[in-house]
Amino acid sequence: MSVTGITASNPYSNVNDLLSNVRNFKIIESTLREGEQFANAYFSRENKIKIATMLSDFGVDYIELTNPAASPQSREDCEAICKLGLKAKILTHTRCTMEDAKLACDCGVDGVDVVIGTSQFLREHSLGGKDMKAITKQALEVIEYIKSRGCEVRFSSEDSFRSDLVDLLSIYRAASNAGVGRVGVADTVGCASPRQVYDLVRTLRGCVSTDIEVHFHDDTGCAVANSFTALEAGATHIDTSVLGIGERNGICPLGALMARMMPTSRDYILSKYKVHQLKAIEDFVAETVEINVPFNNPITGFCAFTHKAGIHAKAILNSPSTYEILKPEDFGLSRQLYRYVHFTSRLTGWNAIKSRVDQLGLKMTDDQIKEVTGKIKQMADLKVMTLDESDALIRSFHLELQQAENN
Ligand SMILES: CC(=O)SCCNC(=O)CCNC(=O)[C@H](O)C(C)(C)COP(=O)(O)OP(=O)(O)OC[C@H]1O[C@@H](n2cnc3c(N)ncnc32)[C@H](O)[C@@H]1OP(=O)(O)O
Ligand SMILES: O=C(O)CCC(=O)C(=O)O
Ligand SMILES: [Zn+2]
Predict the structure, then answer these.
(1) What phi and psi, each to the nearest 5 degrees, are found at residue 382?
(2) 143, 260, 271, 328: which could form a disulfide with 333 (CB 3.0–4.6 Å)?
(3) How far is the CA of 319 from the centre of ligand 1 (A)?
(4) How confident is the model at residue 1 (pLDDT cuts 50, 70, 90)?
């Protein structure tokens, strides 16, 4: 590390930023709360227990469950998960009401995540026209009650980024003074840009002494960037769900957050999270909610480590780091799982084909490989080629060479 904090491997790193928690943050895993709000989600008791257990083993700090007030089954499942004795702490999410808070504490949770809308939209259309004074009074009563029951309490404003800044800071400060462990900032509609996130979280960091949790929806594609930026600005806890499932198009995905943090905080991530379990967790959740893992999913998408263009293929065959910032081995994945180098398109190059010729155990000169590469490209211009077809073309070209040599 140089004096300025700029390293050869990452010229943008800035170790001088004292606010930043990118190497020291906690995850509040909300697949079993926010994730249950995903359109396709239905979690049986058995699947909830399996998901909670997998996430706890993975190393998340907290698991957030659906409000027990949602249904009798939700309450019973919450009680059952609390009794599992998992390493992760169990939280439940509630409205800011005494009834919800009482039910939550009765379930045996470690903590209660209380939320209430603070934007004009929510105050008018969800909360029947409540003003900030009434909301603050209600919040303080609920906070006091949960504390009296010996549970951790977090207070969050819903729709924080469309709320008045003075209103927001005032209610957070009141919650902080009332002794909550965390305050939460929620981008409920996914409208915030990274710069807005940095400004709000940094301002809040100066106003409260509590931990700061952040919750970002992905409506405008910023959930991961916003989570990262929030950590840089001093947030301490990030909400995630497996594959990002949640209301509408969901929140910051656990896997994508791991991918984002790895180049920045590799040692921290590897010491804290069993990232090689990520694929199994994603596959299980995907199957449970009947979706495919997206093709472009960080780390586990089917082509996350596939290189197609000839220029890329040549360089990564020499050194994967040329075009890869993440290492599949870190996540317990073998390159064989992916079609690591694509040999069958018109974008391929002779260096890629040379590696395939080697894999097939054939001997050819560079000029011969260039010639057969030309043939593959000609065929790939006409149709989608399979690997078998490309291999057959290479083998028959090789046979012709041998026959010519023997004559
Ligand atoms: C942004 C988020 O994701 S917040 C979390 C969302 N999660 C959920 O909604 C959990 C699943 N929800 C449910 O099962 C139900 O909505 C319940 C059990 C919570 C409430 O059901 P119902 O009593 O039938 O009310 P309904 O859902 O129609 O309306 C919500 C009520 O809560 C009130 N409310 C909404 N948010 C809050 C809040 N944060 N704090 C206090 N009250 C709230 C509304 O004003 C409304 O009150 P009303 O009964 O006087 O009209
Ligand atoms: O409780 C929170 O912090 C977030 C609630 C929520 O899901 C949201 O506002 O999108
Ligand atoms: Zn949400």
Answers:
(1) -95, -30
(2) 328
(3) 54
(4) very low
Q: Which residues pair with 116 in a beta bridge?
A: 157
Does ligand 1 come within 6 angstroms of the Cβ of 116? Answer: yes
Same domain, 329 and 278: no
Distance 160 CA to ligand 2 centre (A): 9
- Index of the ligand 2 atom closest to the CA of residue 30: 7
pTM for this model (two decimals): 0.95
Beta bridge pairs of residue 241: 253
Residue with CA at minimum distance from ligand 2 atom 8: 188
Q: Which helix (H) or strand (E) holds 114?
A: strand 111-117
Ion ligand 3 contact residues with beta carbon within 5 A: 34
Domain containing residue 179: 26-288
Instruction: Enter the ipTM.
Output: 0.99
Number of domains present in the structure of the chain: 2
User: Picking from 11-15, 45-49, 175-179, 318-322, which range would have the lowest pLDDT averaged per residue?
Assistant: 11-15
- Per the listing, tokens 């907290």 go with 62
Q: What's the gap between Cα 17 and its chain centre?
A: 24
349 and 253 co-located in one domain: no
**From the CB of residue 202, how many other CB atoms can be counted at a distance below 10 Å?**
16
Residue where a domain terminates, one of 288, 318, 334: 288
Within a domain: 297: no
* CB-based pocket (< 6 A), ligand 2: 34, 93, 113, 115, 156, 158, 184, 186, 188, 215, 217
Is residue 304 in a domain?
no
